[in-house]
Amino acid sequence: MSGSILKRAVVSKFTLAFFHDSGWYDVDMSQAEPLTWGQNLGCDFVLKSCYEYMEIQKRGVRNATTSPWCNESVRATEVTPSTDCSDAKNQVFLDRTVNNELQHYGSDSICINHDPNTAWLSSWRSKVTTFPTIRATCHKVSYQAT
């Protein structure tokens, strides 16, 4: 299972196996989704700390990436958006992605909750995309006196 704010969360085979082994759950393994985070990064990625993994990468092959970890502490604090629609800082994160939901963050935004039993649908140029994990979105609102 993966935590997620801007990306789609995943329930992996590992998570379902953990639930099954706890003895509290019956699981359907066919419902597991691929979890590619950390894929093919080797034992050091799993067994070492984040810092050790980055140091190994930096000492190894020239120009080796420390991905998925960053090596700047400032960047680590900058990449965590909140779930508050009125927090204008979130717009920076949204501007870095494709804004399929036409969301807007700021003091002029409100949170819209969606039916948890119905997937969000987006249609563009005759192509329909389903977003089953979207449960709430932030949208700009303006009020007019009548």
UniProtKB/TrEMBL annotation:
Matches recorded under InterPro entries: Peptidase_M8 (IPR001577)
Q: Which GO terms describe its cellular component?
A: cytoplasm; membrane
- Name the cofactor(s) required for activity, per the record: Zn(2+)
For biological process, the GO terms are: cell adhesion; proteolysis
**SUPFAM superfamilies from the UniProt entry:** Metalloproteases ('zincins'), catalytic domain
Q: Any idea which GO molecular function terms this record carries? A: metal ion binding; metalloendopeptidase activity
Provide the cofactor note recorded for this chain's UniProt entry: Binds 1 zinc ion per subunit.
Q: Which UniProt keywords apply?
A: Hydrolase, Metal-binding, Metalloprotease, Protease, Zinc
Which of the seven top EC classes does this enzyme belong to?
A: hydrolase
**What name does the UniProt record give this protein?**
Leishmanolysin-like peptidase
| Gene source species | Paragonimus westermani
Highest lineage ranks of the organism? Eukaryota, Metazoa, Spiralia, Lophotrochozoa, Platyhelminthes
